[in-house]
């Protein structure tokens, strides 16, 4: 059965950017609910021993498995969201900067594109920095529980733009939350680890 991933930081450690109250509600209520519902849905079906990735692939596009897909996707996306943030400041290393400069122009251009994707996304969803199949970095958004692992994209970071991610702290100001995420919360060490070990298509297209 699936378990709620512990936070990789203490619930008050993202303050003042994200309050302990928001983190507690988001992780202990919203994220936990997806885990509990997924366990109820897959218990006794044989799927409870599969990995989340396999369940997401198996349930994708199947109307009769929509609830399983939604809850598995939300568990995966939240696990990845917590990992995308750091309680202590991190900076993109030289290699990441070279990828971002090549594909977006500059770090600021990357941030602008990510912010536009996150704020322009209508309704609930996620903004992502991903490695595309051609080895380029791209910014995308997905709706509801949709996830880039359900395709040929390799995610590096995500920002949750469901209202529950920011409403206590930022009310309707999603853009301010996303800007804070970009300026203060991204775990660039996690991005480096993702690039270092798990993005073969990117490694084979290194900038000169
Ligand atoms: Mn969420």
Report on this structure.
This protein is mainly alpha-helical and 208 residues long. The protein has helices spanning 20-42, 52-59, 66-83, 94-104, 107-120, 167-170, 174-185, 188-198, 200-203, and strands at 125-131, 137-143, 154-160. It is globular. The chain has two domains: 20-83, Orthogonal Bundle (Helix Hairpins); 94-203, Iron/manganese superoxide dismutase, C-terminal domain (minor pseudopilin epsh fold), CATH 3.55.40. The protein is built from nine helices and three strands, in the order H-H-H-H-H-E-E-E-H-H-H-H. A hairpin with a 5-residue loop joins strand 1 and strand 2 (137-143). The longest helix has 23 residues, at 20-42. Manganese (II) ion binds next to helix 1.
Task: List the topology elements.
Elements: H1 20-42, H2 52-59, H3 66-83, H4 94-104, H5 107-120, E1 125-131, E2 137-143, E3 154-160, H6 167-170, H7 174-185, H8 188-198, H9 200-203
Antiparallel strand pairs: 1-2, 1-3
Helix pairs in contact: 1-3, 2-3, 4-5, 5-7
Bound molecules: manganese (II) ion (MN).
Which key terms come to mind for this protein?
minor pseudopilin epsh fold, 208 residues, binds manganese (II) ion, mainly alpha, Helix Hairpins, 3-stranded antiparallel beta sheet
